[in-house]
Amino acid sequence: MNNETRKNYILLSGLLFFFFFTWSSSFSLISIWLNQEVGLRGAQTGVIFSAIALVAFCAQPLYGFIQDKLGLRKNLLWFLGFMLLMSGPFFVFVYAQLLRFNILLGALAGGLYVGATFFAGTGALESYIERVSRIAGFEFGKARMWGSLGWASATFFAGMLLNIDPDINFWLASASAAIFLVLLYWVKEVKVDALSTLEYGNPQKLTMKDALALLAMPNFWALVVFVMGVSVYNVYDQQFSVYFASLFSTPQQGNEMYGFLNSLQVFLEAGGMFLSPFLINRIGAKKGLLLSGTIMAARIFGSGLADGAIMISAMKLLHAVELPILLISIFKYIASRFDQRLSATLYLVGFQFITQLCASVLSPVAGYGYDHIGFADTYIIMGTMVASFVVISAFLLKGEKQITKVIDVPA
Questions:
Q1: What is the distance between the alpha carbons of residues 241 and 249, in angstroms, rounded to a whole number?
Q2: Does the keyword Membrane apply (predicted)?
Q3: Which tens digit of pLDDT belongs to each residue from 52-62?
Q4: Fewest beta carbons less than 10 Å away: which of 21, 50, 76, 255?
Q5: How far apart (Å, rounded) are the C-alpha atoms in residues 173 and 95?
Q6: What band does 332 get if pLDDT is binned at 50, 70 and 90?
């Protein structure tokens, strides 16, 4: 790396670290917080996650198109940074009180804030940094690794802090967001050379017609089918912490152990983010997607068969293998099959949007399943669903092709 590339890598990695640190501090133990502090049951928690997913999948297409129009400008990231800064005040003074007063009103407020800030915001930030990484000349996975480390660092302490005072985690999130804003101020827009201009086109000339044209592409719908299957992992993770904590003698011990487990998983995930580009470059993005889906199906199905905290922990840790392969493969598949100017729209719509759409439908159903047939049987059903979609996707997804050059040089 030259000095400019190294500086961009460090600052953008820092943005990912503190974005995910803020998200983890606020949200990694949200199911336990809703269960133990607010007193919600599984089906009610499912409604909360459904509201978040509904807002996220409305915001994601908008964020994607806006970021593609902005190109390498930071306007949307500034908005996200200030939303992150409000984490502490929102969770401490607004969210808990609203949920106790009226669950539907609280779900609406939480959906608006959490969905727009974290679940839609992560896609906007990741797609921005992935675009810069291609132009600046470093692997996105090596930067995204720091996001995983940020999540793991916060989660390591989250369980202990929850037992002391849940509000500490929320105020820690706001402090992390302040550092995010400082780093964002230091990030300079990458200068696009003539070759990159030919490759990525002029984002300011992007139109809604260009974005809507994706809906007529079979390749886009093939990707959507795959994502519908793997979106189940999001639903699986939502209330896993409640199930895991129930396996211990006291809720406090379960809270701490889940914090340690989740932290270990994400530290391992960070290593996977660093290594997975080497694997995907070797086997190709399509095979990478199918491999991640296969691991996911085995993990979720195996969670239904696992007996005791040790075995269920082993199943959960497979997420550290699956997610890096999935994320890097998605970006590389998009880069090889579609118009580069629409990379943010494709990621936020083709992956994030579809994930949240499925989660909004499946979250209440999963919550009902947890309450009535138990976590284990619900996990077996989920794992079977993922496996079915992966088999179908093996026939629908196409192999890589040479990246399309968009000849659109600005005057």
A1: 15
A2: yes
A3: 877 876 887 78
A4: 76
A5: 15
A6: confident
Determine, yes or no, domain membership for 402: no
Determine contact, residues 389/231, Cβ cutoff 8 Å. Answer: no
Close Cβ partners of 304 (under 8 Å, ≥ 6 residues apart): 375, 376, 377, 378, 379, 380, 382, 383
Buried-exposed string 169-203: b where 16+ CB fall within 10 A, e elsewhere? bbbbbbebbeebbebbeebeebebeeeebebbbeb
- Which residue has 């979250």 as its token pair? 363
Q: Is residue 411 part of a domain?
A: no
- How many independent structural domains does the chain possess? 1
pTM beyond 0.85: the answer is: no
Instruction: Say how far apart CA 411 and CA 405 lie, in whole Å.
Output: 18
Host H or E run for residue 155:
helix 140-164
What letter would DSSP give residue 249?
Answer: S
Contact 279, 212 (CB under 8 A): no
> What tokens does 12 get?
């953008």
Inter-residue long-range contacts of 97-105, CB under 8 Å, 24+ positions, other chains counted: 99/34, 99/38, 99/40, 99/48, 100/38, 103/40, 103/44, 103/47, 103/48, 104/47
Residue type, 220: F
What are the C-alpha distances in Å from 402 to residues 332, 333, 339, 399?
Answer: 11, 11, 11, 10
Which CATH number covers residue 80? 1.20.1250.20
- Asked whether residue 325 is domain-assigned, the answer is yes
Question: Can you tell me the distance from the alpha carbon of 79 to that of 62, in angstroms, rounded to the nearest whole number?
Answer: 14
**Residue 404 belongs to some domain of the structure:** no
The boundaries of the domain holding residue 123 are 3-396
Rg (CA), the chain: 20
- Per residue in 77-119, pLDDT (tens digit) is 999 999 999 999 999 899 888 888 888 888 889 889 998 899 8
Report the greatest alpha carbon distance in the chain: 69
Alpha-carbon gap, residue 362 to 352, rounded angstroms? 15
Residue with tokens 């729209």: 345
d(CA 71, CA 254): 45
Cα–Cα nearest to 269, from 159, 145, 370:
145
SS3 assignment, position 409: coil
